[in-house]
Amino acid sequence: MSSSSELSGGETTAPSGFRARVLTMADNSRLKGLTSLGPIVTLLTVFYAIPVALLIVYSVFVDDPFVTAITFEHFARFLDLSAVISLQIGDLPYVRLLARSLGIAVVVTVLSLIIAYPITYYLGQHAPERWQMLLVLLVIIPFWTSYLIRTYAWIPILSRNGFINGALGALGLPTVPLLNTYWGSIIGLVYVFVPFVILPLYASMRSLDASLIEAARDLGASRSAVFREVVFPLTLPGALAGAVFVFIKCAAAYVTPALLGGTSGRMFAQVIETQFGTAFNWNFGAALSVILVAVVLGSLWIAMRLGIDVGKSRGLGGGGL
Amino acid sequence: MSSDLHVDGVTKHFGDVRAVDDVSFTVEEGTFVTLLGPSGCGKTTTLRMIAGYETPTTGRVTLGDRDITDEKPYQRPTSMVFQSYALFPHKTVGENVGFGLKMRDVPSEERDRRVAEILELVELPGTEDRAIDELSGGQQQRIALARSLVIEPEVLLLDEPLGALDLKLRKNMQVELKDLQEELGITFVYVTHDQEEALTMSDEIVILNDGRIEQRGTPAEIYESPRTRFVAEFIGDTNLLDGTYVATDSGAYLECGSVEFPVEPNPAAESGATLSVSIRPEKVSLEESAARNGGSTETDITLDGVVDDVIYQGNVAKIHVRIGDSELISERHVVNSTDLPTPGSECRVRWTKEHADVLVE
Amino acid sequence: MSTADGLQERLGLNSDVSLGLKTAAVLTYVFLYGPIFVILVMSFDAGRYGLRWEFSPEWYLNLATRGDLIGSLWLSLQIGVVVMIVSTVLAVVAAFGLVRFDWPRRKGALSTYLIFVPLTLPIIIYGIGLFVFFSQLGLGRGFIPIVIGHVMYTFPFATLVVAAGVIDLDRSLEEAAMDLGADPITTFREVTIPALMPNIVAAALFSFTLSFDEFLISFFVSGAGSIPLPVRIWGMVRADIEPEVYAISVVVLVISMTIAVIATRLRRF
Ligand SMILES: Nc1ncnc2c1ncn2[C@@H]1O[C@H](COP(=O)(O)OP(=O)(O)O)[C@@H](O)[C@H]1O
Ligand SMILES: [Mg+2]
């Protein structure tokens, strides 16, 4: 070996001063944990938890918090008990709006699943290995680009003299109203949210052992039986993880119904925005916000109780929504 | 100053798991010692305590006169070669090998020179600028070795370093590693679960089982004179005969059903105990009845039996012989496969007393 | 092989099924990219309400004269860069905090929930909450409120990306560095951070695009003086589509898509 045996003790020079202090601190794992999560938890508390909690505070005061009286009138305005008792559904506009939003969320979720299954089955099990990365990348890219722009792009497609109706007209078919309708909201939402189902479902399809499919085929199952008996049950967890995410995000959608939904496609988040934007009734808006958050957290809770692994969709990020 | 490594009464708990239980051994300076045992027996934990990644729950680790138990890994004159190699993927071969020298503020010229020197030693000269992922598994192994050797540690720790290589490469590397260790005279503490590897390379073997030391000794001692049933079964193949151990002033016997034969006395075994005796198959010679004329010496034990089965394995054959209720395997080199006995024929087996080792649990 | 299989083979049904899947996949891609293509087409359309499409770069040329749009684009880029830096630093620290330390069971779970709540609650609620919060503080709207809102919103995503890297990081790399004489600080600088670099860069790029494209939070906390591009685009779309909106949108799409491609390639799947 070489001659520099003074090094063979393997010692490094003893650190001193500030560095030494940092090193002793680094030895204490509790301290390390505290310095790494402490500032973040503080920031989240001040700038996330408090602002959201502020809405809860606003929702239970007549007007300015802590100055005016505590009240439940804002919640009563949402759920008018006399109207409930007399079954005057027409007198419950906010409940009806919430119900319509949840209905739209269900329809969007189902349509997203229907669209997601064939493409992910193809990508996960049939697509040539060489192209797979690229094909998946093509699904991810729109996911990370401005949903605002991608949504308003539907205006020239759906409008009365837009691309779709233009095509229908050219074929001699009657035109259909799409923009500013219920279906406008639905088409726009499916468009924005379908990648949230495709990506977790693709992950499930990909990890599905192809030999299971071959074994089922070998035992005499037809293609549709293979899908029904093997592929569908094994990939359902991935699909449901994405579906839950789509449902809760749709229930609170604002941009898409505002741009494409018109009156018949109006959704709950829009009426919340109105309270702050034009009606200047912050307290009522806050109460509606609390209700929306309760619905979202309730849906998540139910999903978790049903054994759906909601965390699965989380790791895929979620461009701008 | 001698710098023997002493592991002294070391115990390590992980929660309720006792991974290492009161382990003591000494590694003399410049020797090659192997910690051998099945997976989960505490080898890695022991090694990591020597390296400084784990602190013993009780016990001390000393190097010469220096107590290193509480020293940080980066303060100890030890270095570890990881099973995964742990080569830095974002650094070149040269930067990897020179890393330890850089940490010791060795000037870059000397660093380059020593890196080149050590790369020569591991037979990968001139690879300084290569990226790690351009190297094969065997080459990465050598680089990991070079990276540890270049800082001239007093003790080199190796945790199953050949585990990821294929059989042929592994055999070559075993020999090379041993040669390198002898050439450099560095103390090696080597961990493996492969008994053949341990026998091939070590000056001394420490056999661990369930966190405890079962037996330590040279490869020959371990193989030829196993002291416990675990060691006898773990190292090589063996015949185990169960019976009652009888120790008298004139010698020791094993009563084994209808037969009784002398064995080497074992001070750890109590007279009257039920235990096993191990006889290695190649120590059992076999004579066919027709040629039963060999002169028996005083220490020879002979028993009559019937050939049950003959298993031909190329250079050797294993002949299963039924003697009363028990079966004994005799192993012999095959010179001519037509010379092997036929199943069903009568035969006599023979071994000498020194080869019958009394085992304790 | 089963008889059904053989039959299907003979009738060519096999290829029909995968042809069906392939068609469905192609249609899905058309669905995903059609609208983006429409934006591109419209951005080069000369006639504003014309029935025939005619190529013209005039809207792009007009952009140069639209000081408001350029100003907003510049503001969005500035916000994006600040958010990217803050969010990535926080994410690296948080990822280590979450992955590396043995927390007493309850505290660890609590900080995990707190960090990931922003991923699940509706963003419009957070935007409104932040608006109310800053109004109460009398800070009003503008650059700082937008940056704070965006950091809270991007950093959980960034943390997920970095944490995935920390989880995958081979601990023995750091042990090897210490073994060779590097103290914990040097090890972190020389080995840990470089080995995590792909994840850190991906987290930074994702933070940037998320902030750059973010609309709802900005919508509530941006003020007269500082209007980020998405809010400006919203205004243009709501009022009456001005043709320049397509051109500026294409600019936005190109920026985000480029970043998304780079980031996705860096991220380990
Ligand atoms: N960090 C740890 N935490 C808890 N248990 C551990 C840890 N490291 C090792 N063990 C346990 O200690 C025992 C010995 O492990 P190890 O030293 O890795 O064995 P070997 O290297 O011989 O396979 C095993 O039961 C293992 O599960
Ligand atoms: Mg091990």
Task: State the secondary-structure class of chain A.
Answer: mainly alpha
Largest sheet of chain B: 6 strands, mixed
Low-confidence stretches of chain A: 1-11, 315-321
Q: Helix content range of the residues of chain A, please?
A: over 70%
CATH topology of the largest domain in chain B: Rossmann fold
Largest β-sheet summary of chain A: none
Mean of pLDDT of chain A: 85
Q: Tell me the span between the first and last alpha carbons of chain A.
A: 62 Å
Our Rg estimate of chain A from Cα atoms comes to 27 Å
CATH topology of the largest domain in chain A: MetI-like fold
- Largest interface chains and counts: A-C, 96 and 95 residues
Report what the structure shows.
The complex is a heterotrimer of chains A (321), B (361) and C (269). Chain A has 321 residues and is mainly alpha-helical. Chain A folds into two domains: 17-53, no CATH class; 93-313, MetI-like fold (Orthogonal Bundle), CATH 1.10.3720.10. Chain A has helices at 17-27, 29-59, 73-78, 81-85, 93-126, 129-143, 147-152, 154-158, 163-170, 182-207, 210-218, 223-251, 255-261, 268-277, 282-305, 311-314. The longest helix of chain A is centred in the middle third of the chain and has 34 residues, at 93-126. Chain A is globular and about 75 Å long. The model of chain A is unreliable at 1-11 and 315-321 (pLDDT under 50). With 361 residues, chain B is α+β, with helices and mostly antiparallel strands. Chain B has two domains: 5-229, P-loop containing nucleotide triphosphate hydrolases (Rossmann fold); 237-359, OB fold (Dihydrolipoamide Acetyltransferase, E2P). Chain B is 23% helix and 36% strand. Chain B contains eight helices and 20 strands. In chain B, α2 (93-103) packs parallel to α4 (137-149). Chain B is elongated, with a radius of gyration of 25 Å. Chain C has 269 residues and is mainly alpha-helical. Chain C folds into two domains: 2-43, no CATH class; 66-266, MetI-like (MetI-like fold). Chain C is 80% helix and 0% strand. Chains B and C meet through β6 and α2 of B and α8 and α9 of C. Adenosine-5'-diphosphate (ADP) binds at residues 14, 17, 19, 37, 39-45 of chain B. Adenosine-5'-diphosphate binds at residues 14, 17, 19, 37, 39-45 of chain B. Chain A: Residues 98-303 form the ABC transmembrane type-1 domain. Chain A: Its main location: membrane. Chain A: One of its GO terms (cellular component) is plasma membrane. Chain A: Pfam families: BPD_transp_1 (PF00528). Chain A: It is a multi-pass membrane protein. Chain C: One of its GO terms (cellular component) is plasma membrane.
